[in-house]
Design a protein that fits this description.
24% strand, 11 helices, 41% helix, alpha/beta, globular
């Protein structure tokens, strides 16, 4: 007797429903298992740089790396002609995040094009990354205990070394505002990581010989600024129409801290001050569905696909140092 022969007037309808649901569930499980074993090939676009013009193509790829149930993910870079150091670091950071979520997942480059000299150069060179990814097991709201954890993962020696590296571009005096900025950026990522039980940030620095400056990229692979504020309940007055206003208000200190703790929430206003005083240049912020740039003395905000995390980039040159000295 097969399943279909059970459908008769003598067999209660509830049994038909139960058997049908069970049969459908088995099919669903089989589909999910087969789908999980499939290989997903993602084509990396020709311009893999985190500029506003290219975010519509790049961010969905980053999201698929993390969200796919496929255990094999191939990143086809055969068409790539241009890739930035910062974009490559974000790609590596997202791959790590996906692997931590699913230890069976394998992510690898595919079909390297010998003509794509830029990506081969970036993949092969030694990286100037600083990186922390650590689970935090303390409960929130414990005051001194959270501060102790935060202090443990705010690497003041790293910040000090980075300030000293500015000698490479001719800045001999200790650039104190840069140290303060680094401590605030790392501190913010650490505090939010403690709140969400996972501190996960990446920091890249490299010398731009053509522009005679140092370039920096900092990525916090947490929820992102807007999602952190939403989680804290501080965005009730905002609608989808004024989404662009959120990073502006955050930089101006109008939202306070998404941790809702006294004495915090100074990081973004301090970044704004450094930007406006020209202590840093070329500032870019990408977080959740917005990106912000400082162009010709004005903050410009655009929308983009949802980048789950917070991306900062900036540069420092002798001109920034001179601007700071002129304010002393």
């Amino acid at each position: 007797m097969n399943y279909f022969s059970l459908i008769s007037a003598d067999f209660p309808i509830i049994y038909h429903i139960i058997i049908g649901i069970a049969f459908g569930f088995v099919i669903l499980l089989a589909y999910m298992f087969n789908n999980r074993k499939k290989t997903l090939k993602l084509f990396i676009p020709k311009e893999f740089v985190l500029e506003q013009l290219h975010l519509d193509k790049i961010v969905p790829i980053l999201n698929k790396i993390y969200s796919t149930r496929c255990t094999n993910v191939l990143l086809d870079v055969s068409q790539v002609e241009n890739i930035s150091e910062g974009a490559y670091m974000v790609l590596v950071a997202q791959a790590e995040k996906a692997y931590i979520k699913d230890k069976d997942k394998r992510i690898q480059f595919y079909s390297l094009n010998p003509r794509a000299k830029k990506i081969i150069e970036i993949i092969g060179k030694q990286k100037g990354y600083a990186h922390i990814n650590v689970k935090v097991f303390s409960e929130g709201g414990q005051g001194d205990k959270e501060k102790a954890i935060s202090d443990r993962y705010i690497d003041t020696d790293l910040a000090d070394r980075m300030v000293s590296e500015l000698k490479r571009i001719g800045i001999r005096e200790y650039y104190q505002p840069f140290y303060d900025l680094l401590i605030e950026v790392i501190g913010n990522a650490t505090e939010h990581g403690i709140q969400n039980k996972n501190i996960n940030w990446w920091l890249l620095r490299y010398r731009d010989y053509q522009e005679r400056c140092m370039r920096y990229v900092f990525v916090d692979m947490g929820l992102g600024i807007i999602e952190s504020y939403k989680k804290s309940g501080l965005l009730n007055k905002y609608s989808e129409k004024n989404l662009k206003q959120i990073p502006i208000d955050a930089l101006n200190g109008r939202l306070g801290s998404s941790t809702r703790e006294d004495g915090r929430g100074r990081g973004l206003p301090q970044i704004r001050e450094a930007i406006e005083k020209e202590i840093i240049s070329d500032f870019v912020l990408i977080t959740n569905r917005v990106s912000l740039r400082y162009i010709n003395g004005k903050f410009t905000v655009s929308t983009n696909p949802n980048f789950v995390g917070t991306y900062f980039s900036w540069s420092i040159s002798k001109n920034n140092y001179y601007a700071w000295k002129n304010t002393q």
